[in-house]
Design brief:
InterPro entries: ARM-like (IPR011989), ARM-type_fold (IPR016024), PRD1 (IPR044968)
Shape: elongated
GO biological process, one term: meiotic DNA double-strand break formation
Strand order of the largest sheet: 1-2
Helix content: 55-70%
Protein name: Protein PRD1
Length: about 1300
């Protein structure tokens, strides 16, 4: 045979080959040569016909030619089957490996052609060749098997169909597995693997399972081969075959056959051995031993295939826990954990390991120990898979961790807890922030792991994780509320997680209770801010399971101790119409389970809101109650005297209606509810009037009846039954009940206090309230509001209102206790509650006075109990002080009770000072007298004020006290408000101030000049009279409070004296020296640190400076004016500095402004005033003058500068712009202060010590003065500011007209 023309030039293709073969057997090649197919066949089939290298060369040339389309086409069209036999003969004849590989390549090339017949013929003949004789160890047999494997590996054709004797082929192959050659076993295993794949892809026509009939032996031999081999390629082939068999269930069936093939005694012995020694049948043990080698392989591909084999084996239907026990007992799971530990987080390895471990975990008992050992390996793996959204083994990893934590909580260490909580919290946070980052089953497992952690003992010992648990529970809930899923399981698991977190917050995991409290607050906030709104909005779209989950979660929170969080949660629920919502759920899901949980939760709500075990009737009768509120009302109309169950149901219905009505959650129409209540009262009246009414029934009945009667009164169209009302009033009168300890609707309480027919039982209830509350009790809420209970807050609201009998009942109760000489403690408690009521609602003093509280206090003062019980005496004084500070003057009248009361107070002062100095109560009485005098300035209690003003004993006492104080000189500075002398002096001066304010009404013709120098020959008045020189001494030497009150007294005297001189046009009757000394004291206080003292002194100075025609030498006045120049210059210089004049600076220089205004008003303005207020100074003042720092004093100053022609046109224009802007701002913002002024009195605390009483009285003095007003008089200050602005514009308009 000649292959190339260049090598055999004398051969012509047209003439055939040199051997004389016909030309049709010679095929042209692309290079111009030819190949004789017969010569090639003879070369392959004739033994020793040519050297092997000739054969190799011929094969290589044919292989090249087959790659040429023309040659291949010619071969397949003319002689397609000619080379099959020679090639196969050569394959089974040559021991030379290179030649065998060449032969296999040629065969593969021919089979890869599009000629199916050639491929089928090769498959058929090779399979017959292998099936024809038993396999023995030879290189030729290996080559044949390898070639057959390549043919079977063809993807395009179906080689399995052209194997004629499949059973003989498989039998021969299975038998060959027993050969000692590892190489041949590898080839056999690959062929069997491919046969198994092809068999299951295309069954025989008769449906015969050829491999199945050899399965037990095949499995044993394959596993033995896997045990013996150390070659990874053989392992791969064997594992691949076993994997196919496992997928088809052959491994599981073989295990069952292994058991079935035993005798009964052998099977029993095997089962006992399995239980006792964790051993298994031969096949399972063999399988465990076989896979250990591949699991330890350095080839990751072998490990992955082996793990897949284990996965498919354990996933088979016939596998039970016995096989898992054997594999675990043979430490296969430990091998898997080790692979996972060393995997370096390679994706395929991690996935395969976790799939297998997850199957091992199905037998928790057998796998527990191994899982505990490998637990530490799972945590870093979880960290890895958690960072990849939708990682396929997230849920398997979490399940393994959850199983370990649940079954063996002791395995957790502190570092494990920290790591798990961190990773899980990140997963839940990502799910919330990104919308979807894990599958629902993964989310469920994450919540389950968290729950398992919360239940573990080691987790309870860790307090640092509370904040992370708090965040995680919130993230879990929010993730389910924001992601729309048809599957309710994630939401239910998040609710369960939240419930367990709340239970965890009640464990003592931290010594810091604030951590537990914060955790509970967060959970309650999640429920109220997220879960409750979502539930109410989606109630009609969610299924019963989710509804039950919500109810169970909320119910678990309510079951905890009734702490603040639980109580607030319960209030939020009922305020959100939870009762109506619950009955709506019963309408949507009318099942027994729903009914049971609804009524259980309603009973817990009642327990929390009304007290422990109050909801017991609802729990006891839950299964007997209807799901419809209308049917519940029907129960009330039944007579229940002989039916204990019906009576319990009626009590439950009343509790449900009562609790829901407290928060305005109406379950039925008002007419229907009122009619049912009346029917309940009428049909059971005999039992009620016989005393068979329990408080558990009476209080809800009273509250409900009062509420719906009150609502009927408002609507004017709901009729009622007088007979039912009469029976109820009789029940209230004859039965013991406690209104103060019960929850009651404010409308119901109001209606009760409007019923005069039950005044006596209501008075008793008020007394019980007074007894149960002390002045500083926890039930007092001075400036807040506590609903649904008769406490001081709600009672104060009743007393302050005019539409009920609360004030009259309280006054009558006090009088009754005094007249009947009741217990001192009862009287004291009533007096104290009056004081508290006034402090909460100052308007209550009007109602108390309107109903004769003055008469009640007067009787109490004249009762012997007053003097024998000092604590009561002080409480009465405190009450009287608070009444007088809050009552409106028009409510007071000059009746005998107030006059007698004042006389008694004066007697007390006289007696007290005769025995010892005034104490705390005596000074409080001074304060009371001061308030009486203040009311007289508003033409109330005018006659009552006269005994105070003209009381000679009081006048003498005060004169002596003032004389002693003045005699102290500089030592008086040490007598501040902390000393008895200083305290007495301050209160006396306060009384004197209000005496001065009242004197012009009580004694209209008083000569105010008598308050000046005593050397003027005028007789002193027979009233309290502290002359100006004494007041100046007190100002000069006294403490700051003494200076302040004395300055107010001086200012009042100078104002009255100035008005008198203007009215009578009289001269000043005092010496020049006297007046100069007074001015010296006043000038020394113009820059005093207390702005109020400075303001009062500057106003006094301004009054003196503006007096006309003084009987004093002019040079003396001018000398004093020089001091005034220094004051004015400093003020002008400071306020004109750029960017300095702020509100504080202007306020600090207000006293100097008054001096400047007074000097500008003089008939002859001092010449130096123009030097001070020159153009630059005025320009600086105006530049610093803005709409935000405008004050009445500064406008007054500019007005006088305008009147005195100090201002130029440009100054006036700038001022005009500023004042226009200020006026606009004041008009716009005026509404901000509409309600503030009304609340000033409410904010004054109960003056339970003298310092607060003194501060309040000084506050009244400053409010009476128009000079200085702080932020609390913003409305009045703005009004005066507007008036000053308008006055400035009027003057400006007049000047322009002129």
């Amino acid at each position: 045979m000649y292959l190339e023309e260049s090598q055999c030039p004398h051969v012509e293709s047209e003439q055939g080959c040199p051997q004389g073969h016909r030309p049709t057997f010679s095929l042209q090649t692309q290079q111009g040569g030819a190949i004789c197919l017969l010569c090639f066949s003879n070369l392959l089939t004739t033994p020793r016909a040519a050297p092997t290298f000739h054969v190799s060369y011929a094969l290589s040339q044919l292989s090249q030619a087959l790659s040429q389309p023309h040659f291949l086409s010619s071969l397949l069209s003319s002689h397609p089957h000619l080379l099959i036999s020679p090639l196969l003969h050569a394959l089974s004849s040559f021991d030379d490996d290179p030649i065998a590989r060449q032969l296999i390549d040629v065969i593969a090339s021919l089979c890869d052609s599009a000629h199916e017949a050639v491929f089928h013929d090769f498959v058929s003949r090779v399979s017959e060749l292998i099936s024809s004789r038993a396999l023995a160890w030879s290189r030729r047999q290996v080559h044949t098997l390898h070639c057959f494997g390549i043919l079977l590996n063809c993807d395009t054709n179906n080689p399995y169909a052209y194997i004629k004797d499949k059973e003989a082929l498989v039998s021969n192959l299975v038998a060959g597995l027993q050969l000692p050659s590892e190489e041949i076993r590898g080839e056999i295993l690959f062929v069997l693997y491919k046969l198994s794949v092809l068999q299951y892809e295309a069954k025989d026509d008769n449906g015969a399972d050829v491999l199945g009939s050899f399965c037990p032996k095949l499995l044993h031999l394959s596993l033995e081969a896997l045990i013996k081999t150390e070659a990874d390629d053989v392992r791969l082939n064997c594992v691949a075959l076993l994997t196919i068999l496992a997928q088809k269930g052959s491994l599981a069936n073989a295990y069952a056959n292994d058991i079935d093939g035993m005798s009964s005694d052998e099977a029993d012995n095997f089962m006992q051995t399995t239980e006792d020694a964790q051993d298994g049948p031969q096949l399972t043990v063999l399988f465990a031993e076989a896979i250990k080698g591949p699991l330890l392989s350095s080839d990751s591909q072998v490990q992955i295939r082996t793990l897949d084999l284990i996965f498919h084996y354990l996933s088979s239907d016939g596998i039970t826990g016995k096989q898992i026990q054997v594999l675990v007992g043979e430490n296969v799971a430990d091998y898997v954990f080790e692979i996972l530990r060393l995997s370096e987080y390679r994706e395929t390895v991690v996935n395969s390991c976790l799939r297998v471990l997850n199957l091992f975990s199905t037998d928790k008992q057998a796998f527990r120990q191994t899982l505990v050992v490998g637990f530490a390996t799972l945590i870093p793996v979880l960290r890895y898979v958690a960072e990849i959204p939708f990682h396929p083994v997230q849920s398997q990893t979490l399940k393994l961790i959850q199983d370990c934590v649940s079954d063996c909580p002791g395995v957790l260490s502190t570092s494990h807890n920290d790591e798990l909580v961190f990773v899980l919290t990140r997963m839940l946070k990502r799910q919330t922030d990104e919308g979807m980052s894990m599958l629902p089953e993964t989310f469920i497992m994450a919540c389950s792991v968290f729950v398992a952690l919360l239940k573990s003992p080691t987790f309870h010992a860790t307090s640092t994780l509370a904040s992370s648990v708090q965040e995680a529970s919130k993230y879990a809930v929010l993730a389910c509320l924001t992601i729309s899923e048809k599957d309710p399981s994630p939401l239910l698991h998040s609710l369960y997680f939240l419930k367990e977190t709340y239970a965890y917050s009640h464990n003592d995991f931290s010594t810091d209770s604030s951590i537990n409290l914060e955790l509970r607050n967060c959970i309650v906030d999640v429920c109220t801010s997220h879960l409750l709104p979502w539930f109410t909005m989606n109630i009609s779209e969610i299924d019963e399971g989710i509804v039950l989950g919500f109810f169970e979660t909320f119910y678990s929170i309510l079951l905890q101790d009734s702490d603040i969080q639980v109580t607030e949660f319960a209030k939020i629920l009922v305020s959100s119409s939870w009762f109506s919502l619950s009955f709506g759920c019963l309408g949507l899901f009318p099942t027994e389970k729903m009914k049971w949980i609804v009524y259980l939760m309603l009973s817990s709500l009642v327990d929390v809101l009304l007290g422990n075990d109050t909801g017991l009737p609802i729990r006891d009768t839950a299964l007997h109650l209807s799901s419809d509120p209308i049917d519940l009302l029907f129960l009330l109309g039944q007579q229940s005297s002989h039916n204990l169950q019906l009576s319990s149901c009626q009590s439950a219905v009343l509790l449900i209606l009562h609790t829901s009505s407290l928060y305005d959650d109406r379950l039925a129409d008002e007419k229907l509810v009122l009619a049912s209540l009346e029917q309940f009262i009428l049909v059971n009246s005999i039992d009620f009037l016989c005393g068979a009414t329990s408080s558990l029934t009476l209080m809800p009945l009273v509250s409900l009846y009062g509420l719906y009667r009150g609502l009927a009164k408002l609507s004017y169209h709901i009729p009622y039954t007088p007979e039912a009302e009469r029976i109820l009033f009789r029940m209230v009168t004859e039965n013991e009940w406690d209104l103060a300890s019960a929850m009651i609707h404010p409308e119901s309480l109001k209606w009760l206090f409007q019923q005069e027919k039950i005044c006596k039982p209501l008075s008793y209830q008020i007394l019980k309230l007074c007894r149960g509350i002390t002045l500083n009790g926890n039930d007092i809420c001075a400036h807040g509001k506590i609903y649904h209970k008769l406490n001081v807050q709600t009672f104060a609201e009743l007393v302050a209102a005019k539409d009920n009998c609360g004030a009259r009942l309280l006054v009558c109760l006090l009088m009754e206790l005094v007249e009947e000489r009741g217990q001192e403690n009862d009287i004291l408690s009533v007096v104290n509650i009056m004081t508290t009521v006034i402090n909460i609602f100052p308007a209550a003093s009007d109602q108390l006075c309107a109903h004769g509280i003055g008469n009640g206090i007067q009787k109490l003062y004249y009762n012997s109990i007053h003097s024998s019980y000092p604590q009561l005496s002080m409480a009465i004084s405190l009450l009287l002080f608070n009444i007088l500070r809050s009552v409106q003057p028009e409510v007071l009248s000059d009746d005998e009770s107030w006059l007698a009361l004042t006389t008694k107070l004066m007697d007390y002062l006289t007696l007290t000072v005769a025995v010892y100095n005034w104490g705390r109560e005596g000074l409080l009485v001074i304060g009371i007298l001061s308030l009486i005098l203040r009311h007289s300035t508003k033409r109330a209690l005018v006659e009552v004020s006269k005994p105070i003003i003209f009381n000679t004993s009081l006048v003498s006492t005060i004169n002596n006290m003032i004389h002693a104080a003045c005699a102290k000189g500089p030592a008086l500075t040490d007598c501040d408000e902390e000393t008895n002398t200083g305290e007495n002096l301050i209160f006396v001066l306060i009384l004197y101030y209000f005496c001065l304010r009242s004197l012009y009404l009580v004694l209209p013709g008083v000569d105010w000049q008598t308050f000046l120098d005593s050397s003027n020959g005028m007789l002193p008045l027979s009233t309290i009279n502290i002359r100006c020189d004494d007041l100046c001494r007190l100002m000069h030497f006294g403490s700051t409070p003494v200076k302040l009150v004395a300055s107010y007294c001086l200012l009042e005297i100078f104002n009255r004296l100035s008005d008198q001189r203007k009215r009578k046009r009289e001269e000043l009757k005092c010496s020049a020296g006297y007046l100069m000394s007074v001015m010296a004291v006043l000038e020394g206080h113009v820059f005093y640190s207390d702005i109020r003292v400075a303001m009062n002194c500057s106003c006094c100075l301004s009054i003196i400076l503006t007096w006309e025609k003084l009987d004093i030498k002019e040079e003396n006045i001018i000398a004093r004016i020089n001091w005034c120049r220094l004051i004015v210059e400093e003020m002008a210089m400071y306020l004109a500095v750029p960017c300095v004049a702020s509100k504080f600076c202007i306020s600090h220089h207000k006293p100097a402004v008054y001096i400047a205004v007074a000097l500008l008003k003089l008939p002859k303005i001092p010449w130096w005033m123009r030097n001070v207020f020159d153009d630059s100074c005025i320009s600086g003042l105006i530049e610093n003058f803005t709409a935000s720092n405008v004050s009445t004093e500064m406008i007054h100053l500019f007005r006088e500068l305008l009147n005195s022609q100090f201002l130029k046109a440009e100054h006036i224009a700038s001022l005009n712009r500023v004042l226009q802007a200020c006026r606009k701002r004041l008009v716009t913002d005026n509404s901000r202060y509409d309600n503030r002024d009304e609340q000033v009195e409410k904010m004054v605390p109960i003056p339970d010590d003298l310092a607060e009483a003194c501060e309040y009285l000084i506050h009244l003095m400053s409010s009476d003065s128009s000079l200085y007003m702080d932020h609390r008089e913003s409305k009045t200050r703005d009004k005066r500011l507007l008036e000053e602005i308008e006055m400035f514009f009027r003057i400006l308009t007049v000047d322009n007209d002129n």
